Amino acid sequence: MRYRTLGGTGIEVSTYCLGTMMFGAVGNPDHDDCTRVIHAALDQGINFVDTADMYSAGESEAIVGRALHGRRDEVVLATKFHFQMGQGRNRRGNSRRWIVRAVEESLRRLGTDWIDLYQVHRPDENTDIEETLAALTDLVSAGKIRAFGCSTFPAEEIVESHHVAQLRGLGRFRTEQPPYSLLARQVEAAVLPVCQRYRMGVLVWSPLASGFLTGRYRRDQPVDLSSGRAALTPARFDPALPGVAAKLDAVERLVEVAEEAGCSLPELALAFTTAHPAVTSTIIGPRTREQLDGLLKGASISLDDATLDRIDEIVPPGTNLYAPDGAWQLPALAHADRRRRPVRDRAAA
Question: Which member of 55, 180, 198, 322 is catalytic?
Fold first, then answer.
């Protein structure tokens, strides 16, 4: 396993990061089995583990904490906050009130005294970015976290955060965690260049495009919409929908590219993300030991320029074949009233 420096932090992390969203009730409820997967990843050179408080309502953090008992010092541990946790109107978001509570609850579940990378899981338009940065800066000073970052932030909000940090003398986001894959390349247009400009580390999620790049979903093959990811979000997997059909068409062409490159489709997908100069680490999210071994199998694959050129022809740089983030949308696009004046004010004269 190779290691890269996480932005300007000086922290060295493995090029693959172990994502733990599938540990717990949502994926693998067997805690002992999840622990074995984590230990196997560490034994094979991964030193970067990413989780979040909302994964299986905290269960994932508890599993990770138990698995890292006795091995905490060898791991760069990342977690996230933002989404609703339990009952209560203020148990969510990016306010100081919630951040100082959320970090204590994560530390307890993780069984540790510090978090290496504490990430804002999504933007929060109801909270000033200064409030969020100030609270996170105080957590660094208190020794509860070592660095902080953001996840799925638009480029303009990343830029604003750095401006506010400089203006107010606050700590700044050291990392960004965006969705990035062969089928979702929009972050190449602005997010990744902005991260490079500010020397931010980048750990990308969903490199297998919600399973479309595993080879499990193929054109002209039936899709079971009653189980797994397809049951949770059938609109993302129904081949009768034009957007899904476009993904399946691209997959068929990418399978050919993988075969010519001498690798599998998942191996091609992971190698593609690690080839971008802005990307520090790619998050892999196995549910079982077998899935982990399969993902690690192609870790040494390096794609040549001819292969990357063929990929560009199939999915042009900076474009998405689907919207990878179903949990959050830009408010300016999600709410019609943000794009429409009151009826009485719409006319030009």
Answer: 55
